[in-house]
Amino acid sequence: TISSTAEKAVYLVIFHLSFFMFVWSYWKTIFTSPASPSKEFCLSKADKEQYEKEERPEYQQEILRRAAKDLPIYTTTASRAIRYCDRCQLIKPDRCHHCSACDICVLKMDHHCPWVNNCVGFSNYKFFLLFLMYSLLYCLFVAATVLQYFIKFWTNELNAKFHILFLFFVAAMFFISILSLFSYHCWLVGKNRSTIETFRAPTFRNGPDKNGFSLGCSKNLREVFGDEKKYWLIPIFTSLGDGCNFPTRLVIMDPEQLAVSSQNEPAKSSGPNQSFPTRPLSESQNRLLTSDSQWVESVPEEENVKSGAKKHIIVSLES
């Protein structure tokens, strides 16, 4: 009949579309090279020679602090030291980690995935999320299609073949496992965290803060998928930023909170181990900083008085 023919045509379109998007996302996740820090984070030849000759850690840190004074770095190690990779011989940008499997420093590294034989980081994190999503939909479509035959088999209405039952079990098991992983990464995107940052919170000037890079759910989502929603479901690179510079909650912290933090922890905000820059990210470095209104989802009327002081803090930090 016409209805059955149209129904089969719809099934075929959905099947081929989901399979195509699944393969495309998987391909991009595998063959997209992990992004590495730019040359500005590498030590100069003179600093590198001086660093290698120096044996005292405190003087090595002095060399690194001098080299990192103009870099947009907000995080340090737990001991307040500059994050430096001896293997790659460069100062690590925020959220950058060295992958022992790839033997390179990866920007905004999430984890090294054996299923794609590649590091998941800034350059391919969107592709990895789409890969999980389309594989989830693909398994759901297969399981839903075979479900009717599976039910008929158990009610003795159909002598189903083994491969049909096996297909249903495989699709259902993969669906459940991928659903848990995809849900976890959706939660990470909403919190603007990587898997590494979930287990080890980044250290800022006021100590470890697992929410230090969170700008609110909508902005966190845009940071990964970009500004234009029409490209969100397509495996093409649309993430904001360059992977080296990330806006932090420090930029929009209320002036009263800054004053309280400086009074409570004066030793952490100044001293010989101070390694944070004196300015936040500029608007040209990340489109999420284009206006003050984009930083706050909703501003109560009683907080409008503080807006002038907040702008003064931001201008003074940039100067």
From TrEMBL:
Q: Where is the composition biased (Polar residues)?
A: 261-296
* Places the protein is found: Membrane
Stretches that traverse the bilayer: 9-27, 127-150, 162-184
Q: Which GO terms describe its molecular function?
A: protein-cysteine S-palmitoyltransferase activity
Annotated membrane topology is: Multi-pass membrane protein
Its UniProt entry gives the catalysed reaction(s) as:
L-cysteinyl-[protein] + hexadecanoyl-CoA = S-hexadecanoyl-L-cysteinyl-[protein] + CoA
CC per GO annotation: membrane
- Its Enzyme Commission number? 2.3.1.225
**Keywords (A to Z) from UniProt:** Acyltransferase, Membrane, Transferase, Transmembrane, Transmembrane helix
All copies of the Palmitoyltransferase DHHC domain together span 82-199
Keyword Acyltransferase on this protein? yes
InterPro entries tied to this protein: Palmitoyltrfase_DHHC (IPR001594), PFA4/ZDH16/20/ERF2-like (IPR039859)
Q: Where is this region: Disordered?
A: 261-308
Keyword presence, Zinc: no
Recorded hits in Pfam families, A to Z, give: DHHC
* Similarity remark: Belongs to the DHHC palmitoyltransferase family.
* Domain characteristics, as noted in the entry: The DHHC domain is required for palmitoyltransferase activity.
| Protein name per UniProt | Palmitoyltransferase
> From which source organism is this entry?
Nestor notabilis
